[in-house]
Prior knowledge:
Blueprint: E1 11-15, E2 26-31, E3 44-49, E4 52-58, H1 73-82, E5 87-90, H2 139-148
Parallel strand pairs: 1-4, 1-5
Antiparallel strand pairs: 2-3, 3-4
Amino acid sequence: MKQEKYPHARIGILGGTGLYQIDGLNNIQEIKLETPFGLPSDSYIIGELKGIKVAFLSRHGRGHRLLPAEVNYRANIFGFKLLGVEKIISVNSVGSLKEEIRPRDIVLADQFIDRTRRQNTFFGQGLVAHIGLAQPVCPALSRYVYEVA
């Protein structure tokens, strides 16, 4: 992988089903990049949203061309890292184990169950690390999103 100088963004937004672009972005740049894990789902769109530099990526690609099983999640996340992103807001369409959470409800999750059986680490090949998932979601970012929503 060739090292390149990419523009930096503070916040990453990973758009799921139904969120394919961010309205209100200014000073837009489209960045196509490659990662050690392959190609991300699409080009990253970098711009300013209310004065904050953000990077947006459509999880399923523009036109919703990738099935969930085809999304290269590690490349998507690594691409955000190459862009200097420190926090990612991920928008998803998912199910719930609670009957009181109905379709179209908006929920800020603090836990999740991963039943994909995909490789879910960036480590290996001599790099050994253990990452706890007791608190997989940043509580400060969740609080902020809740307060501004």
